[in-house]
Write a structure and sequence with these properties.
Blueprint: E1 4-12, E2 16-21, E3 24-29, H1 32-37, E4 44-54, E5 57-63, H2 66-75, H3 83-104, H4 107-111, H5 118-128, H6 132-136, E6 152-154, E7 165-167, H7 177-190, H8 195-208, H9 214-225
Parallel strand pairs: 3-5
Antiparallel strand pairs: 1-2, 1-4, 2-3, 4-5, 6-7
Helix pairs in contact: 2-3, 3-8, 7-8, 7-9, 8-9
């Protein structure tokens, strides 16, 4: 199985890209959100991938993070949800949005994705609600797909015998939102809260304040979990 590709972006289409990995071109299907986040054609690119093999089909699907890849795997495990629908959901909500919607039981947000009806959205939330804490906890160890990549990309315009090479652009530093959510989830678990209720509280707190750090998320989640009345 092909789990990750690192190479040069040869072209972008409406729903897929071609990545040149040492002379071999791989067609990788991606969500709208992922396509928009990729570098310009000719630059270095890396994507985590999920490979689907059937009797009449062999396709690769690409994701910028392991969290997104895991959500794709879980979404496609739900009855009636194929790769196309999964990419539509991830493209509409992003991995953090999917985590938040499923942890909170917010099937209306899932239904906002193209091709997802109310029954399918409700089934997704029902089937995956218990999986949300585990995926959210991955945030502390997930790195951006380009982190650590140090490629030398050959410029196609250089046709001399010894072509010049240019270093791939340094990746942007990953944001701390996923790590903060994972840390808050772990802290609430250590305080005795169950995975589902902790995940729902952290998801709601992160939705109210996306820029909150880990201590801020813990405080906000504890307020949400405090007995009412």
């Amino acid at each position: 199985m092909i789990g990750k590709l690192t190479g040069r972006l040869d072209y972008k289409a409406l729903d897929h890209v071609l990545i040149d990995v040492r002379g071999v071109g791989y067609i990788v299907f991606c969500s709208d959100r992922t396509l928009a986040s990729l570098p310009p054609v000719g630059e270095a690119v890396a994507l985590y991938t999920d490979m689907v093999v059937r009797e009449d089909l062999m396709q690769l699907y690409g994701f910028p993070s392991l969290v997104e890849k895991e959500w794709h795997r879980l979404l496609t495990s739900v009855q009636g949800v194929g790769a196309k629908v999964s990419l539509a959901i991830l493209g509409t909500l992003g991995p953090d949005g999917v985590s938040r919607a499923i942890a909170l039981g917010d099937w209306a947000s899932v239904k906002a994705a193209k091709g997802v009806g109310p029954k399918t959205a409700q089934r997704i939330v029902l089937d995956l609600k218990d999986k949300a804490p585990g995926v959210m906890a991955m945030g502390g160890t997930v790195t951006e797909a380009m982190e650590g990549v140090d490629l030398e990309v050959v410029d196609p315009a250089d046709t001399v015998a010894a072509p010049k090479k240019r270093k791939a652009a340094k990746p942007k530093a990953p944001t701390g939102a996923a790590a903060a959510s994972a840390g808050a989830l772990s802290a609430l678990g250590n305080l005795g809260y169950g995975p589902s209720e902790a995940a729902a509280a952290v998801a709601e707190a992160a939705g109210d304040n996306p820029d909150a750090d880990e201590p801020g998320l813990i405080r906000a989640a504890l307020k949400l979990l405090a007995p009412k009345g």
